[in-house]
Automatic annotation (TrEMBL):
Family: Belongs to the G-protein coupled receptor 1 family.
Region described as Disordered: spans on this chain: 266-287
InterPro entries the UniProt entry points to: ADR_fam, GPCR_Rhodpsn, GPCR_Rhodpsn_7TM
Single biological process term from Gene Ontology: adenylate cyclase-activating adrenergic receptor signaling pathway
Protein name per its UniProtKB record: Dopamine receptor 2
Any one GO MF annotation of this record: adrenergic receptor activity
GO cellular component: plasma membrane
Residue stretches making up the G-protein coupled receptors family 1 profile domain: 41-373
Localization in the cell: Cell membrane
Membrane topology: Multi-pass membrane protein
Gene3D superfamilies from the UniProt entry: Rhodopsin 7-helix transmembrane proteins
TM ranges: 26-49, 61-80, 100-121, 142-164, 184-206, 318-341, 353-376
Length: 422
């Protein structure tokens, strides 16, 4: 196969030929495919969250922010890196864009990782404290956390790289896009961008796993022990009975709301701070029906919250898979990043190739998150199907309309007084 030839105009206005071998052409096709998949998948996630009402949840604020960061990686960071790789590390776009591109790379990658960290904390609160979660994680608070994530990412990227360029005394060739090898910056940015969030995610998902196991056991034995949030000396034991009868939920205003569902009866027994039932609670009269339980129980709709535990655990499982893929994708890069800062290129054989492979492996994490949602999240799978089917339906309708219009337009009738000039 003959090399592919391109005429490229570089920043110094000199025209030169670039010959791409078959391997370089194949590499370009693969890398462009990665970019397209990443952008398409994350745009699909954002459209699904915006259009589908059932995806308007607090957790999906963080997922939308994650998709935005991943889309930025696929649309801006990966394409220029693909050109850089295909051109054998020859930079075509000048020093200014190199600095901005490197900053956007750090910004988007760090924001993606910190959003995953925020999601893990959100799931930790939802699983371990399902009664207080709605009051703790409100939409304004979720938006504030997302803003902090992007602010921290921006502070790590733009000012740090600008400072490094200002204090750098090494000559900077125009046809290369170098990154800092400052030990302090590489170690600090790695801790803030990866190792710190990784520690938080491992801790939260371990606690989520323990809480999920405990709650599953509680539901199986039909009893759950909770503590009142504003009465530290009081707690309550919930006894849960399930059946298959017709459920009748009575309200205080003597109205009734019937529905055919699994029968769920919740009774609450007050206990003291030592965990024992109060002396008066031994009698059957003190086993409080749910509608006569304390105001704290009614305020949080215990039956509804307990019914959501299964859904919360499934969401935690999906996001746990996201975290596992994140570790596999990013851990090699940040190990290499720290090693390059500490011992330089001497301790890594073929460091340029290894660094490029692990960098792209980290970026591929941005394209894998939508695939994980589609495979493990029923809500996102349903939303993706609806969006893609509606797009196909719209295109078919447009095609049929155009075909009908063409077939229904009659030939223009000639007027009797019209003269034809040849």
């Amino acid at each position: 196969m003959q090399p592919t030839e391109f005429i490229v105009l570089n920043s110094t206005k000199d025209v030169f030929d670039i010959h791409l071998t078959a391997n370089q052409t194949a590499l370009a096709v693969v890398l462009v495919l990665f970019c397209v998949i990443t952008v398409f998948g994350n745009v699909l996630v954002m459209v699904a969250i915006v259009k589908q009402q059932y995806l308007h949840t607090v957790t999906n604020y963080f997922i939308a922010s994650l998709a935005t960061a991943d889309c930025l990686v696929g649309a801006v960071v990966m394409p220029f890196s693909a050109i850089h790789e295909v051109m054998d590390k020859y930079w075509l776009f000048g020093r200014e864009w190199c600095d901005l591109w490197r900053s956007l790379d750090v910004l988007a990658s760090t924001a993606s990782i910190l959003n995953l960290c925020a999601i893990s904390v959100d799931r930790y609160w939802a699983i371990t404290n399902p009664m207080t979660y709605p009051s703790r994680m409100t939409p304004p608070r979720a938006k504030a956390i997302v803003a902090v994530v992007w602010l921290c990412s921006a502070l790590i990227s733009f000012p740090a790289i600008a400072w490094w360029r200002a204090v750098s005394v090494q000559p900077y060739p125009e046809n290369q896009c170098l990154f800092t090898n400052d030990v302090g910056y590489l170690v600090f940015s790695s801790v803030i961008s990866f190792y710190g969030p990784l520690a938080v995610m491992v801790f939260t998902y371990y606690k989520i796993y323990r809480a999920a196991v405990t709650q599953t056991k509680s539901l199986k034995i039909g009893m759950k022990h909770i503590r009142a949030t504003n009465e530290p000396c009081r707690s309550m034991t919930l006894r849960i009975h399930r059946g298959g009868a017709h459920e009748q939920v009575k309200h205080d205003d003597n109205q009734s709301n019937a529905r055919h569902n699994r029968h769920l009866v919740i009774s609450a027994t007050p206990t003291t701070s030592t965990g024992e039932s109060s002396s008066s609670s031994k009698s059957p009269e003190n086993t409080i029906p749910m509608r006569f339980a304390s105001r704290h129980v009614k305020a949080f709709s215990l039956s509804k919250k307990l019914g959501k535990l299964t859904k919360e655990r499934k969401a935690a499982k999906t996001l746990g898979i996201v975290m596992g893929v994140f570790i596999l994708c990013w851990l090699p890069f940040f190990i290499i990043n720290v090693l390059l800062g500490i011992c330089g290129t001497s301790c890594i054989a073929e460091h340029e190739i290894v660094s490029s492979i692990f960098t792209w492996l980290g970026w591929l994490n941005s394209g894998m998150n939508p695939v994980i949602y589609a495979c493990w999240s029923r809500d996102f799978r349903r939303a993706f199907r609806q969006i893609l089917c509606s797009c196909c339906k719209i295109r078919k309708q447009q095609y049929r309309f155009q075909t009908t219009m063409r077939s229904n337009i009659p030939a223009r009738a000639k007027s009797p007084n019209e003269e034809v000039f040849l």
